[in-house]
């Protein structure tokens, strides 16, 4: 359970400081993803990396993060949020340092996995800390809004900052940014954030966790290596079959557990299931866009890392700028039309890039970037709103964690599928942009619009209210679990 927040002006300042610490951790993890993409062509040339190895540099982080995200929040509720958050900060900083010292691309991939293990402890745990620190509903809503806004800020800062560091210092410097931030956040955490645990911490689910790892890792491995092995090769088909079997077993196992890692009952609600599907689709487009576009700008158009980062700003800046506007629209009119419009904007931007080549005017690219950036920024608030408000308050934390996991699944698939289609089309050497990835992203954008339209209809909302009522009744009638360890200051 959380410690009582200090009262008065001193308490307000302390709560604000805790919010800043948590926001810094979130900024660091999101910045790491966007700042690295600009450095990938340099890593390719200096470490003699293949396209599939570049995919693994990104997806090793994403797979581990997606695999551990759900269990990290539950573990923090049990052993202590400050303790888990502190370990996450140190692990992330250590992984960043090792990444900057990697002697080969293989070591870089391994250290990225370590970095992700730390990152998995930061996002869900920092969200729990913010929720327990701000007890007033209005103050909590404002704090969560500022915490969420860090995503857009980090996305906007990453490409130009990464390009500047790569051009002036080298690709290894993109990992140095995390060191002072991580160490400072660790020291401030130990000084100012009180320890807290949950009154009813969720149980650990080892079978579910193992199945998630097998399903994600085998699917990603098959997609990334499929172009070189052959899509009908026994190894490729075997890994895809193993992934499908693991996903099926995960659903079967989780339905029988009292406190599952993945709450499958949530997906009986069409708005929640739709928000999860849209999160997968839209983050497939976002991660794929950042990965494929930086290779296009540098390897096809010949831009430097800094120029590529600056040229991407129309997209990344609009992610940050359009999210607050979307939040106000959702609050006033609901999530339906923001979801539909955002999906169409993503599809339109990807359709323009489908025909891009070496000589395409930059003005054409700007139009595509504006559409994509606005689509990415507009779609996040309705995803979160739809997922969380379609569940009872007692289930909101778990619902938020599941939605975060689906976002990470989209990140994994975006890099894996985008890179695989690119490799298949241009035979593993980047002589042109390649149209296949953009065709996939157009389809995903249209899918977002269709799913948003269908799952927020009157009939779907009626089903959601029934599921909400059932889950709320189950939560109220559940027996109390033994109280967790006492709060420590």
Task: Briefly summarize what is shown.
79% of the residues lie in helices and 0% in strands. The chain is an all-alpha fold and 489 residues long.
- CATH class membership of the largest domain: Mainly Alpha
Tell me, rounded to a whole number, the average pLDDT: 83
Rg estimate, integer Å: 22 Å
% residues in beta strands:
under 5%
Spans of at least 5 consecutive residues whose pLDDT stays below 50 are 427-433, 479-489
Shape: globular
- Give the termini distance in whole angstroms: 11 Å
* Total of DSSP H or I helical runs spanning 4+ residues: 17
| DSSP strand count | 0
Write out the CATH superfamily name of the largest domain: MFS general substrate transporter like domains
Structural class: mainly alpha
CATH architecture of the largest domain: Up-down Bundle
What is the H/E string? Answer: HHHHHHHHHHHHHHHHH
CATH topology of the largest domain: Growth Hormone, Chain: A
> How would a textbook summarize the main sheet?
none
**Percentage of helical residues?**
over 70%
Tally of discrete structural domains: 3
Description of the molecule:
The structure is a single chain. The chain is an all-alpha fold and 489 residues long. It has 3 domains: 10-194, Up-down Bundle (Growth Hormone, Chain: A), CATH 1.20.1250; 206-260; 268-470, MFS general substrate transporter like domains (Growth Hormone, Chain: A), CATH 1.20.1250.20. It is built from 17 helices and no strands. The protein has helices at 8-46, 51-79, 81-100, 105-119, 123-133, 137-168, 178-192, 206-229, 234-256, 270-300, 305-311, 313-333, 336-354, 362-389, 396-426, 436-455, 458-477. The chain starts with 7 loop residues before the first helix and ends in a 12-residue tail after the last helix.
